[in-house]
Amino acid sequence: MNQEQYSDKIITASQAAQLVKSGDRVYVGTASSFAYELLDALWDRKDELEDVAILCSMSVRPSRMFSADWDEHNPFHVETFFLGEQERLAHRKHGMPLEFTCFHLSQVDLWCEYVGKPDVCFFQVTMPDENGFVSCGPSGGCMYTYLAEKARTVVFECNAQAPYIMNGEKNKMPLSRADAIVLADYPCSPLAETEVDEISQKISDIVMEEVPDGATIQLGLGKISTAIGYGLLNKNDLGIFSELFSEPMMELMKNGNVTNRNKGFMDGLSVYAFSLGSNKMYSYMDRNPALYNGTFPFVNDPRNIAKNRNMMSINTAMSVNLFGEVAADSMGFRQQSAVGGQIDFVKGAQWSEGGKSIIALASSFEKNGEKKSKICLTFPPGTAVTTPRSEVQYIATEYGCINLKKLNMSDRVRAMISLAHPDFRDQLRDEAKEHHLI
Fold it and tell me: Which residues pair with 120 in a beta bridge?
């Protein structure tokens, strides 16, 4: 596409929003790749439209769409496969209707084809390169191409501050793919800095005993994942193969802890699907030849995960019961986030040569000034099991890290009690005896 053809496609965000019709399904973003100017322009049409689905996931930046109180005259509702902070806020605080679809991130292509089915795609991308291609930015490579296959209309929001990711099997698109182009210039979604507390640090210290030099790492978000990420600064020759690229991973690469030379699969590259972090991290990602942004079906495929040597999958949970079942995406009937890629990496890591799957959580939490146990006999009614007991390997709290795979059910129950906070162990032991579990 020559410069004249490119210029002919440039319109304003308001004009792009006019391309949406009543009844349309509009994709607006995932994680750090969100088309916020187009989302705001679409919100300005709230009095003109009816029944418009907003398709998105893992939004962390406030927007008018998600912060306004919903009423019967609001034409929008959210459909997502992974609730982020803003999707939860829109639904719980402001009453916006929300539909959630549960599936593994390795199957996101199926969601795009059979559930998402966008009519219009608002893609935040980079400015075009010298060959007339845009990069899908810090997270868009995880799924943009699958969405574009279904859409009637594709609009590129070319953001001057979006990092250009050089490597990836489907993380670039030609300008010719866009029906319209909107120019933007604002920071990608920055994630607030995570404070590491004493318990998270203790869990990190315990988990570090399970991680060898030369390991390939997958981490999530949150205090425990952040503490573990920075704990890896004491390890050498690490690799990265993770659905998430995060702030600690950047520091590990800059510090030389990550070399990616021992993975045995895609050596030399830090492989990820989506990213969330600071503006400093996004700047580090820009044109970094050591990064590879893959699609969810590629990065989260357990068969690809298993190709990495010493694959260490480290995830977190909201609660674990005495059987070792993991609740990480809902509690009771309230959806918190999503299954995401937890089982993808739990399975893939255990198939890896020398690999381990670790679920880490604090043993307790406080609610309304009262301490409660995260290790429980059973979950509240309605709680979905994220990872079943048959898939779980290591469970870690601040009181230890135990491989449940080697234990029969009664020993597994005893092990889970030992990982609980001491204030709750007697109660859990009594409950286990009452139900003849030990």
Answer: 26, 153
Contact by Cβ (8 Å): 110, 116: no
| Same domain (yes/no): 212, 340 | yes
The pLDDT score that the predictor gives to residue 195 is 86
Q: What pLDDT does residue 426 have?
A: 98
- pLDDT tens digits along 278-315: 999 999 999 999 999 999 999 999 999 999 999 999 99
Q: Give the residue numbers spanning the domain of 235.
A: 198-434
> Could you give the number of structural domains in the chain?
2
Same domain, 53 and 13: yes
Residue 351, class by beta-carbon neighbours within 10 Å (0-12 exposed, 13-18 middle, 19+ buried)?
A: middle
Q: Are residues 369 and 396 in the same domain?
A: yes
Q: List active site positions.
A: 243
> How much is the pTM?
0.95
Q: What is the CATH number of the domain that holds 57?
A: 3.40.1080.10
